């Protein structure tokens, strides 16, 4: 169904990807993509964003959730990339997770998308879909979900699988009122958690 999945977040560099993923917490990718072109036109790299006025960052991203906190973290992240990593986004998990606002999920996305390191980032869609499908037990933590998926999916498919679960979760296995009943192609789920939807 999704043979060549790609991240939907607009970006033109690893730095812009870090900022876009950081902004995407509890916000749709569509919402992030509405603000990033103007944001990145004004602040295209870490050096530029490190010098930004936080009030201007807030103004440029004010349509997305938690924008005040995100604006602060964006500036702090830009300063750290400029001062501690020579202006380049680091390419190890340990260093990425030092950046303000960057947790394991964001680090996984950046490692995978920007540096080609195989990872499976577990977001709300990946967790919901894989639990409903019965690939992951319902009580697994986010970290356990990641480990189970890495054990069950060949490494060369981790990146694509991450995107494919997200695409499928957005299109069919939605949080409310899944659309699977309306499409005869969706006959592969066991849906052990929500059998009423199967
Ligand atoms: S049967 Fe429907 S609700 Fe269950 S996992 Fe598949 S798409 Fe999701």
TrEMBL record:
<keyword id="KW-0234">DNA repair</keyword>
<dbReference type="GO" id="GO:0019104">
    <property type="term" value="F:DNA N-glycosylase activity"/>
</dbReference>
<keyword id="KW-0378">Hydrolase</keyword>
<dbReference type="InterPro" id="IPR003265">
    <property type="entry name" value="HhH-GPD_domain"/>
</dbReference>
<keyword id="KW-0326">Glycosidase</keyword>
<dbReference type="InterPro" id="IPR023170">
    <property type="entry name" value="HhH_base_excis_C"/>
</dbReference>
<dbReference type="Pfam" id="PF00730">
    <property type="entry name" value="HhH-GPD"/>
</dbReference>
<dbReference type="GO" id="GO:0003677">
    <property type="term" value="F:DNA binding"/>
</dbReference>
<feature type="domain" description="HhH-GPD">
    <location>
        <begin position="23"/>
        <end position="171"/>
    </location>
</feature>
<dbReference type="GO" id="GO:0051539">
    <property type="term" value="F:4 iron, 4 sulfur cluster binding"/>
</dbReference>
<dbReference type="InterPro" id="IPR004036">
    <property type="entry name" value="Endonuclease-III-like_CS2"/>
</dbReference>
<keyword id="KW-0479">Metal-binding</keyword>
<dbReference type="Pfam" id="PF00633">
    <property type="entry name" value="HHH"/>
</dbReference>
<dbReference type="InterPro" id="IPR011257">
    <property type="entry name" value="DNA_glycosylase"/>
</dbReference>
<dbReference type="GO" id="GO:0006285">
    <property type="term" value="P:base-excision repair, AP site formation"/>
</dbReference>
<keyword id="KW-0004">4Fe-4S</keyword>
<keyword id="KW-0255">Endonuclease</keyword>
<keyword id="KW-0411">Iron-sulfur</keyword>
<keyword id="KW-0227">DNA damage</keyword>
<dbReference type="InterPro" id="IPR000445">
    <property type="entry name" value="HhH_motif"/>
</dbReference>
<comment type="similarity">
    <text>Belongs to the Nth/MutY family.</text>
</comment>
<keyword id="KW-0238">DNA-binding</keyword>
<dbReference type="InterPro" id="IPR005759">
    <property type="entry name" value="Nth"/>
</dbReference>
<comment type="function">
    <text>DNA repair enzyme that has both DNA N-glycosylase activity and AP-lyase activity. The DNA N-glycosylase activity releases various damaged pyrimidines from DNA by cleaving the N-glycosidic bond, leaving an AP (apurinic/apyrimidinic) site. The AP-lyase activity cleaves the phosphodiester bond 3' to the AP site by a beta-elimination, leaving a 3'-terminal unsaturated sugar and a product with a terminal 5'-phosphate.</text>
</comment>
<protein>
    <recommendedName>
        <fullName>Endonuclease III</fullName>
        <ecNumber>4.2.99.18</ecNumber>
    </recommendedName>
</protein>
<dbReference type="GO" id="GO:0046872">
    <property type="term" value="F:metal ion binding"/>
</dbReference>
<keyword id="KW-0456">Lyase</keyword>
<keyword id="KW-0408">Iron</keyword>
<keyword id="KW-0540">Nuclease</keyword>
<dbReference type="GO" id="GO:0140078">
    <property type="term" value="F:class I DNA-(apurinic or apyrimidinic site) endonuclease activity"/>
</dbReference>
């Amino acid at each position: 169904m999704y043979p060549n999945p790609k991240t939907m977040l607009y970006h033109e560099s690893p730095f812009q990807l870090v900022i876009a993923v950081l902004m995407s917490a509890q916000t749709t990718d569509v919402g992030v993509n509405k603000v990033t072109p103007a944001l990145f036109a004004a602040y295209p790299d870490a050096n530029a964003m490190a010098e930004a006025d936080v009030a201007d960052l807030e103004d440029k991203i004010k349509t997305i959730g938690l924008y005040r906190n995100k604006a602060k973290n964006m500036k702090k992240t830009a300063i750290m990339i400029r001062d501690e990593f020579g202006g380049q986004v680091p390419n190890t998990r340990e260093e990425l997770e030092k950046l303000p606002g960057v947790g394991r999920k964001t680090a996984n996305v950046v490692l995978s998308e920007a540096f080609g390191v195989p990872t499976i980032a577990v977001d709300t869609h990946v967790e919901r879909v894989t639990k409903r499908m019965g690939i992951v037990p319902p009580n697994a933590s986010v970290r356990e979900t990641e480990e189970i998926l890495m054990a069950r999916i060949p490494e060369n498919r981790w990146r694509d699988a991450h995107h494919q679960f997200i695409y499928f979760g957005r299109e069919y296995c939605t949080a409310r009122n899944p659309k699977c009943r309306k499409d005869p192609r969706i006959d592969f789920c066991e849906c052990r958690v929500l059998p009423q939807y199967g």
